[in-house]
Amino acid sequence: MGPAPETVTDPGDPRLDPYTRMRERDLVGRAGRFVVEGEVTLRLLLGPRSRFRAESILLAPERWPGLADAVAACPAPVYLAAKAVMSAVTGFPIHRGVLAIGVRGGELDAAAPVPPRPAPALVLGLAGLTNHDNVGAAFRNAAAFGADAVLLDAESCDPLYRKSIRVSAGAALIQPFARLPAGQDWLRLAQTLDLQPLAFSPGAVEPLDALAVPARALLILGTEGPGLDPATLAGARPIRIPMAAGFDSLNVATAAGIALHAIARGQGRLDRAGTVRTGPA
Amino acid sequence: MGPAPETVTDPGDPRLDPYTRMRERDLVGRAGRFVVEGEVTLRLLLGPRSRFRAESILLAPERWPGLADAVAACPAPVYLAAKAVMSAVTGFPIHRGVLAIGVRGGELDAAAPVPPRPAPALVLGLAGLTNHDNVGAAFRNAAAFGADAVLLDAESCDPLYRKSIRVSAGAALIQPFARLPAGQDWLRLAQTLDLQPLAFSPGAVEPLDALAVPARALLILGTEGPGLDPATLAGARPIRIPMAAGFDSLNVATAAGIALHAIARGQGRLDRAGTVRTGPA
């Protein structure tokens, strides 16, 4: 059992310091900490697949009974404060009454989460994704389709930014990720990790649907406007997601979802349990 | 050629009335009008595939030269106003300097955009989608994969809401859509339109990847929490998108994108132009 919850009534209580001025701190950073919001995400933070530890948990008192089981094994302190107190602390209205502070710890090396040959491998590479919603959504899709790792270049934003975690539905807390090492590019990294680089681009010729799925794949996606840089496109295998004529436009995270689904299916890594009904079409 | 642009300097100018108090009007509605933001979306509104007509266009003067070609054939008045005036009119900062008011016109009948048998048909049904981002993103995917129509139940929000249009990348302006008629349910509608109803649900047994693609399909998706109602699931063919074990969670618009891609591919309606490179995997 973790410690008994402590009730806090003063928004100025120093124990709640990491929860203060939440939006300002989103911009300036949290010195190795991040914020988790909501029950689903908190359960992932505290669960067996979490890559991070909780530093503290802040709940509205009415949320405590429903979460006591999830929190039981966690050694972090649990603070109970009315939603009005939580809102005064954070600086905006708290509706769900579930917050936590997590600790980042050290960053992973890019090679660490990628299984070595001859195991199959599925890695998502995000290039220049400066939108937190897109990064969060891409992580959600990576986790849903069982990617081994998400790699991000220096321009892509932080998966542990508050909004990224929320949009990822907590996937950012369980999905291994790493930064592209300084001085590395996607092609050299793919060579180092023994992955075939697939560069997704609307301008590519080869359609995803005709691809012989590689057993070890690095799926590289860039931003919707500029797309991937010419060197990456030239050195990788450019792949196009076939679309209808006249509206050749997919959100980058959705494109990642479709690409991950196709490659994961081809690699046989998706859940195939269940009886296939063979009724009339 | 349309009329010459008229310069407006007074935020109180009555010609700009439809652009005032934009966020408040998002909530109360616009009496048969909608707002279009940004160049890509304006070009779709004015283009050959648009389902709607523009009532007026409001541009920052520096945007006029780049858009004069797109606006040339449009009979609606074009107003030029500095971004500071545009911001004063709308009530929030206007960065891109491109706005327009569109006219909804009459709503389509649900049957109108669905080609009759024996033509193949691909229709997306959205059930209870109360989030404007999800509706917009689903429209973007429907247009990208060439769906004939998007049908929405009474609970789903308006595809012509300002944010829905923006998130759809303008797809809401070209993608035919209609409301589920009052007193109809998805199953009766599918029967009327001679479509096979496929109900997407994480709890379904039959995986999407093993499905013999029906030539005429209605893909029904519900919200992430409650999902589809039991009657729809019981009467339709429930389909599951296979995922990795342990994180069985996709955003509803992403799930729609993956489902649309698979069915559109199976129906042979996607662009297959281009030479397939057959190099080593």
UniProtKB/TrEMBL annotation, chains A, B:
> Which UniProt key words apply to this protein?
Methyltransferase, Transferase
- Record PANTHER family: RRNA METHYLASE, RRNA METHYLTRANSFERASE 3
Q: Where is the tRNA/rRNA methyltransferase SpoU type domain?
A: 122-261
* Gene Ontology biological-process annotations: methylation
- Which Pfam family, any one of them, does this sequence belong to? SpoU_methylase
Source organism superkingdom: Bacteria
- Annotated protein name in UniProt: RNA methyltransferase
